[in-house]
Amino acid sequence: MHNKLNKLTVAVTLVSALLAASQASASGFQVREQSAKVLGNAMAGAAAGAEDVSYMTYNPAAIGNAEGTQLAGGISFIDAQFELTDASASPAGVPAAVVSYDRGGSRQGGEEAWVPSFAFKTDLNERMDFGLSVSAPYGLSTEYDKDWIGRYHAIETDLQTIDIQPTFNYQATDRLDLALGLRAQYADATLSNAIDLGAVGAQANQLPPTAVGKYDGMAEVTGDDWGYGYTLGALFQATEQTRLGISYRSEVDLELEGDVRYRSDNPTGQQVLAGAQAMGRLRDAGGTAELTTPANMNLGIYHEVSDRVALMANAEWTEWSSFDELVVESGGQELSTTEENWNDTWAFSVGANYRLNRQWLLRAGLGVDESPVPDAEHRTPRVPDADRRWATLGATWMPTTDLSVTAGYMRVFGDDGDINQSGAKPENASRGDLSGTYEVDANVFALSVGYRF
Predict the structure, then answer these.
(1) What pLDDT, in 10s, does the model give residues 377-425?
(2) How far apart are CA 94 and CA 224, in angstroms?
(3) Domain 2-452 falls in which CATH fold?
């Protein structure tokens, strides 16, 4: 047992290092790709699948259905693509035909992401199990060219999280498992956007009105924090063939503390920035941003139709309404506010397994996911989210009864999403108008290995 714990310590350290560098984007800023097995079934087995220890990220009670001591590790690769088409941007209240912010930069902002995951469990006694998972349940990465048309609204948005979850499961009856897990969540974020120093200089009579949109600076906010929450789960074996699952993951409140920095790469912009700083504006300082990663709940059913075929379904609710605005403060003053007003959402999925033979299990699934973004006025370049559907395929190879290797593929089809950020809104006074239509799609590849001692 001591040797097993040493291996566990090393594995957690390595996975934590990988997660600290991971970047991902998903519906809202949630990342569901924590298990190749679950992904291969379009997330349909999240609450009730419970095939092995990797399912504990979705339902902590899954470890009650995982025999003996188990390890599972995996990695997902997310290739998200989105582009703003038919775009128009200009200073607040000025038609784009008169003054346009378009400099010809790319309007694509999709990023690639690697998302590792790790899980471990062991039996404490006949009724109690202990498990530990390390995952990245939330993450976001969007980055545009510095001269793109919407640069005053966003250039880089990067959110990285690590969720460390120790879990205890209790076998209440021969058919019912109940689990409680604690969550320690670390978040690190970077937000940047361009500043129209041409407009700042014109307002200060340093530059002529024609300088608007021509001399840019950059503002960047960085911060990190630890937050804490909990997760609950139950797994009920209704019959020999049917299993029901439910899980709940609490929200985590974070106050990201870090720095606000300003800079400009051109001499004219540097002169304007120096003048503004001499007057007490646009100065480097400490900064904070409050962020809540939302609560969510999974409900699922798993049913074995025969020795070869299993069907499953899952419904997931996410409390995105807790993300109502993003406020950055510096020196006790409100630096910027982005009104979000997101809605709570549901995601639904169905999946099937087919056991080809003793060594091979084939997987497939379909899913739909609501976007939390309520309308075009609240869609932003930082999170250009829209309703989506996905289709998945996967396969598990079991060379021995104790070892499994799983690969999965997901194709995400996103709806087009209109954006209509008005410069008339107080938060956009210095950002201007931005409108267009986002086209979104993604490919996800996952690979995981599980071993039972």
Answers:
(1) 989 898 888 999 999 999 999 999 999 999 999 999 999 999 999 988 8
(2) 38
(3) Porin (2.40.160)
